[in-house]
Design brief:
Largest interface: A-B, 20 and 31 residues
Distance between the termini of chain B: 26 Å
Number of strands of chain A: 4
Number of domains of chain B: 2
Strand content of chain B: 25-35%
Oligomer: heterodimer
Number of helices of chain B: 10
Number of strands of chain B: 10
Number of domains of chain A: 1
CATH topology of the largest domain in chain B: Rossmann fold
Largest sheet of chain B: 6 strands, mixed
Helix content of chain A: over 70%
Structural class of chain B: alpha/beta
Order of helices and strands of chain A: HHHHHHEEEHHHHEHHHH
Helix content of chain B: 25-40%
Number of helices of chain A: 14
Structural class of chain A: mainly alpha
Shape of chain B: globular
Largest sheet of chain A: 2 strands, antiparallel
CATH architecture of the largest domain in chain B: 3-Layer(aba) Sandwich
Strand content of chain A: under 5%
CATH class of the largest domain in chain B: Alpha Beta
Order of helices and strands of chain B: EEEHEEHEHHHHEHEHEEHH
Radius of gyration of chain B: 17 Å
Distance between the termini of chain A: 6 Å
């Protein structure tokens, strides 16, 4: 990242948030719903990007953090009757605690071993969800009733099943996490994470406790992914084991690679691109995954640093 | 030079797996001196530096800085104790700019603008390249940046592993000048070097290492007068 004035950087990000806000009023119903989903999942990608893009740790197990949030929120609403805010916090706490435990164990490894260890833990988590089907709903999952998805604040009720409320809630989460991510990568901590990615041994030789910094990054990444999962459960009313499967560990990797690893806006762009390519091509042919695959190959060939990464490399060196 | 023994190594044994590479190594670096470790490839020079930094564990012996034991410290705690290391091959943060590389060094020990200015005064060339991506610097400039980043820690002891390797003569001269300046500023340096001319021009004392053992330590004046030790341990000179 080249030096850029904070005002310019923050202006860009606030501009993106403002654009997403304005889109709520012009998008047709179908696309409004799709954008709400994309923003919620872009938060998942941002959490993944923190670890993969900035620290250089490639995890194949982030579905467990997303689903820890998903189930942490969903089960507390479904079984304990908790309100939406409490359930959301429960989901985030579940993801952060799980990330702390997984981080303590998995950070004893690096490289390919880290990928495999995280993938195995995620598989264990997935199988546990299926095993405790009486609580989790197993492969059928659980539906969170509409009545449970209402937030009451000072006499005002916000129904998360209402498309506009759902869109704005997803946007609020996305905006908060985007600004946190931006502040994080511009902070001392963020610079140390990049240094670790560039050369861990050298960073250690400058006196940084690289293991402690990586552990903090794993926990922050896990908590952000869990926030995405918790929001997804509460906004869309479904908690299912498929979100804990390997597919949901690979998807954020794809979104981040497409959008641009180690860029703050890349996760949104990647998620948006992937969703719309899939959505548009599936309207033409049942072999849409083939077209998605070709699009991915072309992008990797001609923009190996992802969309935002390539823009930064070629034109806007100051992009964070 | 007064033997103030800033950094002392006594009876140091180190292993790579089951292979022993250092055998009871003894070494003393005095305050404000440049001590050169000299020997053939594989003699144990770089391993000695890595052992000081805690990158290779000491199986036996002690390493003390100003009386404080360094063995057993985590590798990231050794720089905090006052030792900075510039490894062979520079190892910069290639994607970061020159300024960001320096900033990472400054942040490590909470140093500020004054330290930054002092370091850039030592390497004025870097001042002109602050916004340049460090991976695009020339070899000599990269070496300067690696040294600058290490000096941001304001170390008592600087460890330099073959800083002139692969550099053109004008850059080698600049690196030598900088090492000499650092001595004037009171920074003690352990220098691993393969070039006899470089050793003779900047070192105060030379420690000959052979097969993981220190064979002889001589003043550079004595070595200039009688270079037979260089022939004996390295086969050149």
């Amino acid at each position: 990242m080249r030096d850029a004035s904070p005002a310019k950087t923050y202006a860009l990000h606030i501009g993106v948030i403002a654009l997403l806000f304005a889109l709520n009023f012009v998008l047709p119903d179908y696309h409004q719903g799709l954008f709400a989903r994309i923003m919620a999942l872009a938060v998942f990608a941002m959490g993944y990007n923190l670890l993969f893009g900035y620290v250089g740790l490639l995890s194949l197990g982030h579905a467990m953090f997303f689903s820890a949030g998903l189930y942490g929120a969903g089960l507390t609403v479904h079984h304990l009757g908790w309100g939406v805010p409490q359930a959301f916090v429960a989901g985030v706490v579940c993801g952060a605690l799980l990330a702390l435990v997984i981080g303590l164990l998995a950070l004893r490894t690096s490289g390919v071993a880290f990928m495999i260890v995280t993938m195995m833990f995620a598989q264990v988590f997935y199988l546990l969800i299926l095993y405790f089907a009486a609580w989790t709903g197993g492969d059928q999952g659980l539906v969170i009733q509409q009545a449970s998805r209402v937030i009451s604040i000072g006499g005002i009720s916000l129904d998360l099943t209402d498309p506009t409320v759902r869109y704005m809630s997803a946007l609020a989460l996305f905006a908060v996490v985007l600004l946190i991510a931006l502040a994080l990568v511009r902070s001392r901590f963020g610079r140390v994470l990049v240094a670790i990615r560039e050369n861990e041994e050298r960073t250690k030789m400058l006196g940084y406790d690289t293991v402690a910094n990586k552990l903090i990054a794993v926990v922050a990444s896990g908590a952000i992914c869990a926030a995405s999962g918790a929001a997804y459960a509460l906004l869309f009313g479904y908690v299912g084991s498929n979100f804990a499967s390997i597919q949901y560990s690979i998807l954020p990797l794809l979104w981040v690679l497409l959008g641009g690893a180690a860029t703050t806006l890349g996760p949104l762009i990647g998620t948006l691109f992937m969703y719309y390519v899939t959505d548009i091509t599936s309207g033409f042919t049942s072999a849409y995954l083939l077209i998605v695959g070709v699009a991915l190959i072309l992008l990797v060939l001609f923009a190996p640093k992802g969309i935002m990464g390539s823009i930064r490399e070629r034109w806007l060196g100051w992009l964070p | 030079m007064a033997d103030t023994g800033l950094l002392t190594i006594a009876g140091l044994d180190c292993f790579y797996g089951e292979v022993q590479v250092l055998y009871g190594l003894d070494l003393a670096l005095n305050k404000g001196e440049v001590l050169c470790l000299f020997g053939r490839n594989g003699a144990g020079k770089t391993t000695t530096l890595k052992a000081i930094m805690g990158l290779v564990p000491a199986a036996a012996g002690s390493i003390r800085l100003d009386g404080k034991e360094l063995t057993g410290l985590a590798a990231h705690d050794v720089p905090k104790a006052g030792v900075a290391y510039v490894p062979q091959g520079r190892r910069l943060f290639a994607e970061m700019s020159v300024a960001e590389n320096i900033e990472i060094g400054l942040m490590a020990r909470g140093k500020g603008k004054q330290t930054r200015e002092n370091v850039l005064d030592l390497f004025p060339l870097l001042r002109e390249r602050l916004k340049q991506r460090s991976g695009t610097l020339s070899g000599g400039e990269q070496q300067m940046l690696a040294m600058a980043r290490a000096l941001c820690l304001e170390p008592q002891v600087l460890l330099l592993d073959e800083p002139t390797e692969g550099l053109m003569p004008s850059m080698i001269a600049r690196i030598r000048e900088t090492v000499a300046k650092l001595r004037e500023l009171g920074v003690s340096t352990i220098l691993v070097e393969q070039r006899v001319d470089a050793v003779l021009s900047v070192a105060d004392r030379v420690c000959f290492i052979e097969n993981g053992r220190n064979r002889e330590t001589v003043d550079v004046e004595a070595l200039r007068a009688d270079p037979s030790a260089v022939r004996r341990y390295v086969g050149v000179g």
